[in-house]
């Protein structure tokens, strides 16, 4: 990557190079779009997770919120959901055991 | 000429720039889960927005170059570091990006099994995964916005859609798709598109 950075700095102003880089950027859009589709298929199994992804997208792209905070907030949401499920399961177990 | 160009490549920047590069990438590396897609918008915000180490165009080119190699997002630190402070900057940023995870991995190696099976740690990962997808969407939004600023829509679609289909349907490595895009872009310079 260091070699690429050095070469990039040297050739970026040459004729034709900027057009080639624009073409490469367009291809990168396609590659990242496919990566997004693949990640979405694996990690967004339901509407709730899709809503979280959409909210994080809006927070990062339009409101420029700190991406680290968004990831941590989503992670904590996952922990809270897990704890609530644990409690609900415990309550159900107690109800089932009581005569 | 050679000593001149070598001094341009190795010229040390201000020590505060080196420290800033190291510090920013060290903090960013703490949240580079799952290949680091989550931190790409953060790298962009710091390097293009707040610190102005590089321009949006160079950042987009860096993202493209990143996909030419393993660990596409984490190697961005080297590229951005070079833009900000030449070789010393690249070294500082790379060190920042990789030092903390290596130290953490070494320290936590013994407790890794416990962490993997911990329900809350797993729940955190499951909760963070949709956020990573959202952030990847934000990255796509950002590079698409820049690409459309410098290239006509039809040309972007003519390259991006086949690139996407090739990535989905074949096992061709992204490097060849990106090189193909660059060749098409270069060819357009002869047709004044």
Topology diagram in text:
The complex is a heterodimer of chains A (99) and B (193).
Chain A: H1 2-11, H2 17-43, H3 47-61, H4 67-97
Chain B: H1 2-10, H2 15-29, H3 40-50, H4 56-66, H5 76-108, H6 112-117, H7 119-150, H8 153-169, H9 174-188
Tell me what the structure shows.
- The complex is a heterodimer of chains A (99) and B (193).
- Chain A is mostly helical.
- Chain A is built from 4 helices and no strands.
- Chain A has helices at residues 2-11, 17-43, 47-61, 67-97.
- In chain A, helix 3 runs antiparallel to helix 4.
- The longest helix of chain A has 31 residues, at 67-97.
- The radius of gyration of chain A is 23 Å and the shape is elongated.
- The model of chain A has no long low-confidence stretch (mean pLDDT 86).
- Chain B is mostly helical.
- Chain B has 9 helices and no strands.
- Chain B starts with a helix and ends in a 5-residue tail after the last helix.
- The mean pLDDT of chain B is 83.
- The interface between A and B is large, with 65 and 88 residues.
In short:
The complex is a heterodimer of chains A (99) and B (193). Chain A has helices at residues 2-11, 17-43, 47-61, 67-97.
The share of residues in helices of chain B is over 70%
Structural class determined from secondary elements of chain A: mainly alpha
User: Which residues of chain B sit in consecutive blocks of at least 5 with pLDDT less than 50?
Assistant: none
Instruction: Specify the structural class of chain B.
Output: mainly alpha
Envelope shape of chain A: elongated
Structural descriptors:
heterodimer, A: 99 residues, mainly alpha, 0% strand, elongated, B: 193 residues, globular
């Amino acid at each position: 990557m260091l070699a690429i950075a050095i070469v990039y700095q040297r050739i970026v102003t040459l004729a034709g190079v900027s057009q080639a880089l624009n073409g490469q950027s367009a291809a990168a859009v396609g590659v990242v779009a496919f990566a997004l589709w693949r990640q979405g298929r694996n990690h967004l199994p339901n509407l709730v997770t899709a809503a979280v992804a959409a909210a994080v997208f809006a927070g990062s792209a339009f409101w420029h919120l700190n991406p680290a905070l968004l990831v941590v907030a989503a992670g904590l949401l996952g922990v809270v959901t897990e704890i609530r499920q644990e409690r609900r399961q415990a309550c159900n177990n107690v109800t089932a055991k009581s005569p | 000429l050679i000593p001149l160009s070598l001094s341009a490549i190795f010229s040390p920047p201000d020590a505060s720039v080196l420290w800033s590069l190291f510090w920013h990438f060290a903090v960013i590396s703490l949240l580079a889960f799952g290949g680091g897609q989550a931190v790409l918008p953060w790298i962009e915000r710091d390097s293009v927005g707040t610190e102005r180490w590089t321009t949006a165009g160079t950042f987009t080119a860096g993202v493209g170059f990143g996909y030419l190699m393993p660990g596409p997002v984490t190697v961005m630190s080297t590229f951005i570091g070079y833009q900000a402070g030449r070789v010393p900057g690249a070294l500082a940023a790379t060190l920042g990006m990789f030092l903390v995870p290596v130290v953490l991995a070494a320290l936590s190696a013994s407790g890794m099994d416990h962490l993997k099976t911990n329900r809350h740690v797993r729940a955190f990962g499951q909760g963070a995964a949709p956020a990573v997808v959202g952030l990847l969407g934000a990255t796509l939004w950002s590079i698409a916005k820049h690409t459309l600023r410098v290239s006509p829509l039809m040309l972007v679609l003519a390259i991006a859609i086949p690139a996407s289909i090739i990535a989905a349907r074949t096992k061709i490595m992204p490097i060849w798709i990106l090189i193909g895009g660059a060749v098409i872009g270069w060819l357009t310079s002869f047709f004044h598109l």
